[in-house]
Amino acid sequence: MKRLHTLTHGFELAQADQRLIGGALKKAGLSAQSPDYEDLFQEAQILYAQTWAQVEVELATFRPYIFQKIVWRTWDYFRRQTRQQEHEQLLTATQTWDQLTTGQTPQFVLEQLQQVWPQLDSWAQIVLQENLLQGRALKQIAAEHQVSDRYLRKVRQQLRERLRRELNVKF
């Protein structure tokens, strides 16, 4: 007896179900004009085929399942992209701090930072120093100070907005 749930059959179904894949990507917030669309569409087809080969369900049951799985995978991709951008911002912030401390930054920026520092509450100072400048993970800082990392993420976001506004520096 021939097994229906093979990888080859999964790819055939994925080819036939392109509207489902496109709809899942759209629901996840990915525009067809996005530069990543084709790559993510192909990844969704691979996910479709691999998942089909792993499960033994009818197609009518499988389609809603794979739709949601593609949406979740796309959201994971967006989260990874966001973390990557934040990491790049941290690297830029570290470079900015290095410039501040080595005297490569104009005096007026140093003066502005000195004016902002005393106005920051203790949590904002901790987040600025330990997370944004030293690159320590918020979870590590939260565990050390016995607060939630969710709270520190909120503090970091508010701090970044303030520094952008007042210093025109991206942290």
From TrEMBL:
One of its GO terms (biological process) is DNA-templated transcription initiation. It comes from the Bacteria. InterPro entries: RNA_pol_sigma_r2, RNA_pol_sigma_r3/r4-like. Transmembrane segments: none annotated. One of its GO terms (molecular function) is DNA-binding transcription factor activity. This is RNA polymerase sigma-70 region 2 domain-containing protein. The lineage of its organism: Bacteria, Bacillati, Bacillota, Bacilli, Lactobacillales.
